[in-house]
Specification:
The chain is an alpha+beta fold. It has three domains: 5-66 and 111-277, Butyryl-CoA Dehydrogenase, subunit A, domain 2, CATH 2.40.110; 281-453, Butyryl-CoA Dehydrogenase, subunit A, domain 3 (Up-down Bundle), CATH 1.20.140.10; 463-496, no CATH class. The chain has 17 helices and 14 strands. The chain has helices spanning 5-11, 35-49, 54-57, 72-88, 97-109, 122-135, 228-231, 269-277, 281-310, 317-342, 358-383, 402-409, 417-431, 434-444, 450-460, 463-475, 492-496, and strands at 17-20, 23-25, 58-59, 62-63, 139-142, 165-170, 173-180, 191-194, 209-214, 220-224, 249-259, 263-266, 345-346, 354-355. The strands form four sheets. Strands 2-1-10-11-7-6 form a six-stranded mixed beta sheet, with no helix packed on it. A hairpin with a 7-residue loop joins strand 13 (345-346) and strand 14 (354-355). The radius of gyration is 26 Å and the shape is globular. The protein starts with a helix and ends with a helix. 44% of the residues are buried.
Length: 497
């Protein structure tokens, strides 16, 4: 059954080890660097648990992200659930609970990928998916290795415990040591998946594993980056960063014990890589992420429209054209989601249901990283300098001496000072703050580095059809079709006509 928001918050008070600014955080649900975002995620659970959106978000008491879609309609139903949660965070909460839920569902749809001669993790993958679904648990993931020497594989770094690896086997499980980075939203999750989404060298066998753990596991430490929520002055002054900073953390394993039933892949470089790509897990990530991205562009475009109205420039031809470009980008983002669903593919001959079309899903990764910076640039030009000259705090409006000055000079026709400042502070938080800068970088690398996804698109895309189309054209004519006169591109026959 689904959990309420309060039940979710209670689950975070489990003694997990989270560090920020040299301080161990006793309770992320009450700490000023995390509490508002935790409350925002709790609201997502309330929407699913008991609200007007419950039927859209769940089926038979389970969130739709945990259900294996059996046809196109199933994909559409899952996307509508993704959209409800994306709109609740205006697209700024990327790794909401439905993200890894969809990934775990991808594992359950094709568990055979986890079966090898030396280790069989198929039952473990199915059991983990079932445990998440039945408990309505929030799982995050950490798949990125620390950025050390990129020219060397994991096993050849200067220190042997930089990247998570196996250091011992015991009767009941294994002991792991090392780190993973960019654990987005891990601070707020119930469990974490630790693995590797990039290819591993054959000698990296000790690093070739994936497993799941509760966040309160002894020896597991999360080191948080700067909290934008913690730096926010108020919700009025920083309306996005004060409520939707999902955080990113370094995950460190200090001789952490992992029970065998929580190990998904073990000492197999091929399976540890393929579990993301040969199951629907990764395209399920893209389905959720693309739906959120579409929602985020809708929000930014709406912000641009309101800014032009506040500036009284919305009827200028060049401004209308700029809004048209933004609306076109929203339509592109939407089209990728719908096209991926429409081009669905069967999983394991239909036994694992269906997944969004891989080619369109992979292409969305390319377009999103290009659309987002372009949209920001467009909106910044529309906003002008008004987002720079703002009161340090909304409290200035209430000050007996400053208030009259602010209300007199920071307004526009039809928009009072409070309304205008509120809008401009929202715009700055989305466009120019440190929170905004993180989101631009986040969207550029949301699905990995460009050199990775561009190469993968070339490999996975239907290049043969593109070649075949040109070859059919070349095959349709030749020198025998007519004599070409020197200096002309027309055949004799064409000239005669």
């Amino acid at each position: 059954m689904t959990r309420s928001g309060q039940e979710y918050l209670a689950s975070l008070r489990d003694g997990r080890e989270v560090w920020l600014d040299g301080e161990r955080v006793a309770d992320v649900t009450r700490h000023p660097a995390f509490r508002n975002t935790a409350a925002s995620i709790a609201r997502l659970y309330d929407l699913a648990h008991d609200s007007a959106h419950t039927a859209e978000l769940t089926e038979d008491g389970v969130h739709r992200a945990f259900l294996v879609p059996r046809d196109h309609a199933g994909l559409v139903a899952r996307r509508r659930a993704h959209k409800v949660w994306a709109e609740a965070g205006y697209g700024f909460l990327g790794r909401t609970p439905d993200c890894m839920a969809a990934g775990a569902t991808g594992f359950a749809a094709a568990p055979g990928v986890f079966t090898t001669g030396a280790f069989d993790g198929a039952d473990h993958a199915r059991a983990w998916h079932r445990r998440l679904a039945e408990g309505d648990l929030y799982a995050a993931f950490t798949l990125t290795n620390p950025q050390s020497d990129r020219t060397r594989p994991a096993s050849e770094q200067e220190e042997d415990d930089l990247v998570v690896r196996v250091v011992a086997e015991k009767d009941g499980g294994i002991v792991v040591r090392g780190a993973k980075t960019i654990g987005t939203a891990a601070v707020f999750a119930d469990e974490v998946v630790v693995g590797t989404i990039e290819p591993l060298a054959p000698q990296d066998v000790e690093h070739a594993l994936s497993f799941t753990l509760p966040l309160a596991t002894p020896g597991l430490t999360l080191v948080s980056r700067t909290s934008y929520e913690g730096r926010a002055r108020s919700v009025f002054d920083n309306p996005l960063s004060a409520r939707f900073d999902e955080n990113d953390a370094l995950l460190v394993c200090d001789d952490v014990f992992v029970p065998w039933e929580r190990v998904l892949t073990y000492r197999n470089t091929d399976t540890t890589f393929r579990m993301w790509w040969d199951t629907p897990a990764y395209v399920n990530f893209v389905h959720q992420g693309a739906t959120r991205f579409w929602t985020k562009l809708e929000f930014l475009t709406g912000l641009a429209i309101l800014l032009t109205r506040a500036n009284n420039t919305h009827e200028l031809p060049q401004v209308v054209q700029a809004i048209g470009r933004l609306m076109g980008r929203v339509a592109q983002a939407k089209a990728f989601v719908l096209a991926a669903e429409a081009s669905f593919e069967e999983v394991d001959g239909g036994r694992g249901g269906v997944r969004p079309g891989k080619e369109i899903s992979y292409a969305q990764r390319i377009v999103a990283g290009e659309l987002y910076p372009a949209a920001l640039q467009e909106i910044k030009l529309l906003a002008g300098g008004g987002v720079i000259q703002l009161p340090a705090s909304g409290a200035d409006l209430l000050h007996p001496e400053l208030g009259p000055l602010v209300r007199k000079y920071i307004r526009s026709p039809g928009h009072g000072a409070e309304e205008r400042i509120k809008l401009l502070k929202l715009a700055w938080d989305a466009l120019g703050s440190e929170f905004a800068a993180r989101h631009e970088q986040y969207e550029r690398f949301y699905h990995g580095a460009p050199h990775v996804y561009l190469t993968q698109q070339a490999w996975e895309g239907d290049t043969a059809s593109c070649e075949a189309l040109v070859r059919s054209c070349l095959a349709g004519y030749g020198l025998s079709e007519g004599t070409v006169r020197p200096g002309h591109g027309l055949s004799e026959e064409t000239v005669q006509r």
